[in-house]
Amino acid sequence: MFKATIYVTLKDSVLDPQGVAVKGSLHTLGFEGVRDVRIGKRVEVLLECESRAEAEKQIKELSEKVLSNPVIENFTFELEEVA
């Protein structure tokens, strides 16, 4: 069994209104050194596969088709074998 941690973030070219709002709040609270904030998603998936290669293939496919919008988002993932 494999555990994937998938990170979905907006592409750099896409405005992140949540990030802008959080940045404004941080500045209001005195955190003037904060230059940029980007908000994303973290998803954990447990997956039964025969091999690491198959798990990577399935995680890439489900991330592209379900978890992210490839037009405006990127994703990365970490994969570990679990008992």
Write the layout of secondary structure elements.
Elements: E1 2-10, H1 17-28, E2 40-47, H2 52-67, E3 73-81
Antiparallel strand pairs: 1-2, 1-3
Organism: Laceyella tengchongensis
Keywords: ATP-binding, Cytoplasm, Ligase, Nucleotide-binding, Purine biosynthesis
Family: Belongs to the PurS family.
Overview of the structural elements:
With 83 residues, the chain is an alpha+beta fold. Helices cover 34% and strands 31% of the residues. It has a single domain, classed as Mth169, Chain: A. It has a three-stranded antiparallel sheet with strand order 2-1-3, covered by helices on one side. The protein is elongated and about 50 Å long. The relative contact order is 0.34. Pfam families: PurS (PF02700). Part of the FGAM synthase complex composed of 1 PurL, 1 PurQ and 2 PurS subunits. InterPro entries: PurS, PurS-like_sf.
